[in-house]
Specification:
The protein is α+β, with helices and mostly antiparallel strands and about 100 residues long. It is about 65% helix and about 10% strand. It has 5 helices and 2 strands, in the order ααααββα.
Length: about 100
């Protein structure tokens, strides 16, 4: 693997190392949502969600689509299956640890 690929992989896994970011990705796997809807689903403040969405956007894991005054967040095409597999594996590991 080239150094650039290692760096991209490192950033990808860093994004998955945070509980809030994992939860955001999990709800976005189901549907595109605005910040307020994500806040409601996760029962978290808008500032906490917005901060993590900025990180996820910088890592090219989520994308926004502007609809009027709202921005809908969605998982970037191509990363959905990777994220789903990782979240699914985390769920399986958690079940084994119980």
């Amino acid at each position: 693997m080239k150094e650039v690929e290692y760096e991209k992989l490192s950033v990808f896994y860093k994004m998955l190392s945070d509980n809030t970011r994992l939860r955001i990705l999990d709800v976005l796997l189901e549907e595109s949502l605005c910040v307020n809807d994500i806040c409601t689903k996760l029962n978290m403040s808008q500032s906490a969600i917005s901060h993590q969405l900025i990180n996820l956007r910088k890592a090219n894991l989520v994308k926004t689509n502007k609809i009027g005054k709202n921005a809908l967040y969605r998982i970037m095409t191509g990363t959905t299956s990777q994220i789903f597999k990782i979240i699914n594996n985390i769920t399986i590991i958690n079940d084994c640890l119980k």
